[in-house]
Specification:
Layout (H helix, E strand, L loop, with lengths): L5 H15 L6 H8 L3 H13 L3 E4 L5 E4 L8 H9 L24 H17 L6
Antiparallel strand pairs: 1-2
Helix pairs in contact: 1-3, 1-4, 2-3
Length: about 130
């Protein structure tokens, strides 16, 4: 079954809180509001920061904030930031990015079509809609 990892689910919750907040949020704030471990949030925040979706500022008034406008941030963007490539199977952009049976595969073409439709749907779902 196609399923998002807990890390991606928590990243969506984290970004959703940032989108609704009028001020920057610390990871402690997010941990308290979501019940997600502070250490796990650090790992998630690092991936989101490295992908350019959020920024972090240190200091008394510091914290995390969105860099990307909430109306343009898609579910696909979030999944790619947290999980890497998106694909049902490796030849369609999965974690390994390629398959050693690509020349003899009987289902690659159809899986490619299915993957393309799923990616379109994920791209159409924006954070603002969640």
């Amino acid at each position: 079954m196609f399923q998002l990892r807990h890390e991606t689910d928590y990243a969506i919750q984290f970004l959703n809180l940032l989108a609704k907040s009028k001020k920057q949020l610390s990871l402690n704030d997010v941990a308290n509001r979501t019940g997600v471990s502070f250490l796990f949030l650090q790992k998630i925040a690092r991936k989101l920061r490295m992908s350019g979706l959020v920024k972090a500022e240190q200091g008394v008034n510091g914290g995390y904030s969105l860099v990307v406008p909430v109306k343009s941030l898609s579910l696909k963007d979030i999944i790619k930031a947290v999980e890497g490539k998106c694909g049902l199977v490796d030849c369609c952009g999965g974690a390994n990015g390629d398959c050693n049976k690509k020349t003899s595969c009987q289902v690659k073409r159809m899986m490619g079509k299915v993957n393309k439709e799923i990616m379109k749907i994920l791209d159409d779902v924006k954070l603002v809609d969640m």
